[in-house]
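FW: tagging you since you asked about this chain on Friday. Here's the raw sequence from the shared folder, copied in full. Didn't touch anything.
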Amino acid sequence: MDKLRVVHYINQFFAGIGGEEKADTEPHVAQELPPISKQLGQKLGADFEVVATVVCGDSYFNENIEKASAELIDMIKAQKPDLFIAGPAFNAGRYGVAAGTITKEVQDKLEIPCVTGMYVENPGVDLFRKEIYIVETANSAAGMRKALPKIAKLAAKLGKGETVGTPKEEGYIEKGVRVNFFHEDRGSKRAVDMLIKKIKGEEFETEYPMPNFDRVEPGKPIKDLSKATIAIVTSGGIVPKGNPDRIESSSASKYGEYSLEGVTDLTEETYETAHGGYDPVYANEDADRVLPVDVLRDLEKEGKIGKLHEIFYTTVGNGTSVNNSVAYASEYAKKLVDAGVDGVILTST
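HL: got it, structure written out here
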């Protein structure tokens, strides 16, 4: 029997072209299989052959989604694939969006089995989890050794037309699809068993998990901005030159608290961004592009706001967990309230 043909999609980094400075790489078919594609082929086994790797830079894809998707579809179709795999993208946001987008496009237009892989907090997960198979991975490429076998196992099942099990069994992120099946115990008995375990404080797994929505009550409108104290907070990683608190460029474990007393402009000599995952050139040239101190000082002089709070809080959003983000915000929100701040402008990259 002929081997099943596999096409693999990766970004510029995993193709060995470069990092952020090469994120504008246009779609193309790699001249030879990169190491990650060769490893994937080995994990898939003897019934599969990775016949091509298609590559696109993260910035190029996300800035030209329709054009890049069309170009990539033509390249992938020309390889006559039986199976398509993208990534894994781990927690790289733009890579995740690109991998999810092209996976869905291939699935819809070429009608072949498709799989990708991402960390559960990657924005690509929320965008595409209901429509494609996304294998859950670690948040960084340090988890590659575990991610590739999981992706290959699920992809092989799909490629061979075998029955796919539950998310827990196969390692993919829940798609929200419920499947009827026959259980050896009737529902009433299973419900009572779970209740008894709950009463005893034992572990149990619900058969109907409910979504956990983070509901935030909107703040009350500011009645008079001309008398209001306005603070600025950012997840764009703007820090004093030299990053004195060593805030990490990804998966930040801390936030910074810095004075704006006497500061009217964030210059290239005094401020920079610690943020990874996007081209920092423009932010480093003028950090006001991310943290608009200059504009707010103008509004302060014009009397359109009462005053700018003399402290700003900053961290890096790239790969930073939701739990850490909530913890940071809870801490400095209390400080802002205690300082009498009336409103906050929150900026990102």
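FW: The mean pLDDT is 92.
HL: agreed, and The two ends are 51 Å apart (CA to CA).
FW: great, closing this out.
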